[in-house]
């Protein structure tokens, strides 16, 4: 099987499993307990927080461990907007891009439905990017928060986050970015990016599902969503997932290991190698499949994502045909899989609904090889041809 669905999830890396194992077994203490076992767990948690902070270029106290990317996004969007409005009731708008993951979009819609906020949706261009002009249009004195993702999960387009964040912060508006897809591949230094909050998720990086973190800058006020014993400095109550935190920190550290000259949090050498393989795969698919269209930005895209529309097919049928040939990929994001509706992300990029329904996403981890991608490109040619032949027969 050739697994080309790494943007959905990745297997746990052996080094990660080995690092977390002790905290699931012998060193199973609760970090809040006042005895040796508890203290060992607290030390492990502190170590994981320091390592995560190092990868994010921030202070340990600015890292809040969560149950994954969805929770980190919810905490950032709801927590910051609600905390700001509690101080100034005029701050009752949130701005999000038109291509956000549902974890951000639905958090904003919740603020609208339950707390009376207005949601400003920032349009994207045909490549899925937010321009500074588009952002300027929506920012105003009532904007409590801006949330624009670092890299898109369906098409891989990378946003100019540093420029957009600077624009929001110049107006005193906090800026959150969902870096769940970007974390293994792009520079993650929160100072250089200039963001106030940033979400990451372990299972996209070789850590288990259910581990994640939110960076929250210094004095940024944040209303907790989960109340209880006051763990994570009161920002996220609940006994900490020590093994999950250790796993996340290990996976993040490994993602940039091997290239110390790379910017903090960048996968460096491996990102360059995978980007070259991705470009070869894209070229082969475009050359081999008549009418195939690359979706997303031609160059400013994740090294790990190649996404296409294959007019005259249905994405789901191509997917099934590819799986029969041993290639596993996705017809959109995993979250939207199984739904017939065309992807809102592709529609926001101006792609016609009939074409959007033919979307297929291929996504790789750093173990991908040129041979695997050549085999996959050949399978794509055959799969699209047979789905088209069936459609016209
Ligand atoms: N944000 C993006 C961009 C994602 O791709 C995902 C997962 O697919 C999430 C958030 C949610 O992360 P998790 O699965 O850890 O809840």
Overall description:
Helices cover 40% and strands 12% of the residues. It has 393 residues and is an alpha/beta fold. The chain has two domains: 2-9 and 264-392, Aspartate Aminotransferase, domain 1; 14-258, Type I PLP-dependent aspartate aminotransferase-like (Major domain) (Aspartate Aminotransferase, domain 2, 3-Layer(aba) Sandwich), CATH 3.40.640. The strands form three sheets. Strands 2-8-7-6-5-3-4 form a seven-stranded mixed sheet, with helices on both faces. It is globular. The chain starts with a strand and ends with a helix. The model is unreliable at 258-266 (pLDDT under 50).
CATH topology of the largest domain: Aspartate Aminotransferase, domain 2
Q: What is the chain-wise order of helices and strands? A: EHHEHEHEHEHEHEEHHEEHEHHEH
Our count of helices gives 13
CATH architecture of the largest domain: 3-Layer(aba) Sandwich
Query: CATH H-level name of the largest domain... which superfamily?
Result: Type I PLP-dependent aspartate aminotransferase-like (Major domain)
User: Ends: how far apart?
Assistant: 30 Å
Total domain units: 2
What are the distinct ligands in this entry? Answer: pyridoxal-5'-phosphate
Neighbour order of strands in the largest sheet: 2-8-7-6-5-3-4
Q: Strand content of the residues, in percent?
A: 5-15%
Structural class: alpha/beta
